[in-house]
Amino acid sequence: MIFLLSSKNIIIIDVILIISYYLFFSGLPRKTMLTGIASFSILFLILGYYGKIHERFQHEFESVGQTEASNGIHYVTVGEAFNRDKFGQNCYFNGTAFRAYQLRIFKEMLQQDNIALQGYGLNTSSIKIEQKGLEHNVYHSNNGEAVPYNKMNFHNQYAEVFADLGFIGFAIVIAMLFINLKNGLSDKYFIHIAFAILMISVFLTESFLWRQRGVVFFTLFYCLFNDVLPPGFKKNQYEKSTDNGRSRLSGLPPV
After folding, report:
1. Of 56, 120, 149, 187, which is most buried, counting CB atoms within 10 Å of its CB?
2. Where are the alpha helices (DSSP H) in the chain?
């Protein structure tokens, strides 16, 4: 299901997590562990050369900074996205260049408006993004894009929450991510660690919490992994239930 997202960021992080699991968490014999890593590596290489995954990676590096003579499309570089003042109708942003442009206009917003503390307000930054698109002439859609560039969100949860909610909201999100990762590492529970790392990573490339499915997913698993029960409560409950079970089996009243 993760591969079906066709997200380069998630694919890379997922590969790293799978390898980390076999290296540090699986408890497999060394020979079996190396065989598993080699098998996964071969599988990922095969997947990387076929289908949508290959296209997604190739799309980021192909003809960047060049203009195709056949259709006149100019592929914007990351440097141009950060520094160029005006973009034409023939300019096309791949995923990396577009996110660079979004960070550039986020920086301009911080410099021009007093939003450091409280932000623009929830979902209000989208208005400023549209205005910036008109200012830099990126309001057009290109190369099959269904949505004009200036109507797309930041595609970065950290920038999104800072622009909308200011430093206070940003600090809350960072604290939640830190606590999530800390608890996963403390418990040495790999699924929790994987969830924590994936959330930190996906927030870099998607406005995950600004979509219903994203906030429901994050809230559900965050609450499941980070309960607020007192230390030792679960252990005591487990021991109590075990004692009760033994008492019932032996015919004695539970303790």
Report:
1. 149
2. 8-20, 30-48, 51-61, 78-83, 95-112, 125-136, 157-187, 190-205, 212-225, 233-250
Structure tokens at 119: 């932000």
Q: Locate 189 and state its tokens.
A: 């529970």
DSSP β-ladder status, 74-75 and 91-92: parallel
Residue 32: other Cβ atoms inside 10 A: 11
Q: Are 180 and 225 in contact (CB under 8 A)?
A: yes
Q: Are 77 and 96 in contact (CB under 8 A)?
A: no
Q: At what angle do helices 157-187 and 95-112 cross, to 10 degrees?
A: 110
188: number of Cβ within 10 Å:
10
pTM of the predicted model, to two decimals? 0.73
Q: Tokens representing 93?
A: 């942003």
Tokens of 94: 């791949």
Could you tell me if 17 and 2 are in contact, meaning their C-beta atoms sit under 8 angstroms apart? no
Residues 6+ apart with CB under 8 A from 208: 157, 199, 202, 214, 215, 218
Residue in the structure block whose two tokens are 């260049």: 97
Report the distance separating Cα 84 and Cα 87, nearest Å. 7
Average pLDDT over residues 218-222: 92
Instruction: Give the percent of the chain with pLDDT over 90.
Output: 25
Q: Tell me: pLDDT of 7 over 50.
A: yes
Residues whose CB is less than 8 angstroms from the CB of residue 217 and which lie 6 or more positions away in sequence, other chains included: none
